[in-house]
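Case study 2.
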Amino acid sequence: MREKNETKVNSGLILLLFDILRIESLSSCGMYQLSEQEDLIVWMRTAALPTFRKLYGKIETDIEDNEEVMLVIENNYNTYEFGARKSIVLSTTAWVGGRNHFLGMAYILIGGISLLLAVGFLLLYVMQPR
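Prediction:
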């Protein structure tokens, strides 16, 4: 077992390209200066469904199986008034995404089929033009 030490949560590099472009457009017209506050930008992103997860940060150190993790949480925004809940989720991600591997594989499969069809139609057009 490891010594008790503080594990840092890296809250940098959690933005999507869409977030970066949206914030740059708001900053360029002088409305907001949010480019330094990545966690706020992610928190402000509109959720598509009533139950959602938003990434706060990444733990970049290895955590062993059955290792005890202690969290210190500060409740800055009370959600009990309107019946909402907050929770902490520690999860791992793979190269195809988070918790839904099917969606990543489906994207890769559809992209591969589309690429093969595009090459096939290109060859057909080159060999037999109209």
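The helical segments are 17-28, 38-44, 101-127.
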